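Before surveying the methods themselves, let us examine one representative protein, pairing a chain with its fold in token form.
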Amino acid sequence: MQLSVIDSSSKNEKVRVSDTLFANATSDFLLAQAIRIYLSNARQGTAHTKTRSEINRTKKKWYKQKGTGNARHGARTPSLFVGGGVAFGPRGIENWHKTLTAKLKLLALKAALSAQKTNLFLSKNISLQSKTSEAATLLSSVSTGDEKILIILTKNSDLARRSLRNLNNVLVMTAERVNALHVAMADKIVIDFAALKVLEDRLLKVKKSTLKK
């Protein structure tokens, strides 16, 4: 498959990339499963509700036991009442961690790249930008407005990060750490030429196989 190059010096230049970046057939089920797992693992799980024993509220009996026609209540802390405790609420000890095998992670990444292949671009200079204005000018050729842009570099570069961190909706990842969620959430994806080889080598670990739809 051929991808467009967005450098200012290139005029409608296209480069052929290895088919190892893309799956033979997209799998919506696998991609959805991987995204669900990544989002679940990102949860902090810090939500904590108070039970009736933890509510700082009077335990004094509302009214006398008999003769009122009302139910017999001895406190205002039960979950039945507004301001009372919460029954069966989150306690901050929930484990949201889910797992996905290394092979399925790479297959999901392939599926995500296949689904986004019309939004993939290459760049030789994205990792060499030293000014935010220069990086913004370069990215304006593929993105407009508030589109989310994913930039894949070969390694963490302080120079590139300084020029890109002030741009809204721009996420910078390395080719070794990018996953299916990063790719699926982006509107446009810009891959550095050096990172392309790293990404291809990483996906070569998965044998060519046809994913079930």
User: Anything to note?
Assistant: Helices lie at 28-41, 102-115, 132-139, 158-164, 180-185, 193-203.
